[in-house]
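Re: weekly structure request thread

Next one in the queue (110 aa):
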Amino acid sequence: MKELIKLVNENPDLEVVPLVYTDDIEEGFSFTKGQILRCEIDEIYEYDGRIFVWSEDDGLDLLEYIWDETELSSSLAHKEESDAEIEKRARTRYEAVEWKKVIILWIGAE
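Done, posted below.
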């Protein structure tokens, strides 16, 4: 908790974003008691109902997600695109992403 207070005091303009490990949540209950595992300053991007964290694989999981989505949309539109064309479109979208700097509060179940 002391680390969180320190980060908030040093970075009062940053939003505190609690991220809860979903594997720790039991189905059928409205609440679960959690514990703070760690807190840190990082960057996030919310897209398509998911939250991507920069430090988790340097954002490459988002690039992979965008790639898959781009490939699927190309296929559904019956476009004949090469992997290079799909990669170019995916990278263009990825490079336009505006990551948001926040204080992440990692939470797990007790």
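The beta strands are 16-20, 34-47, 50-53, 100-109. The chain has a mean pLDDT of 86.
Next request, please.
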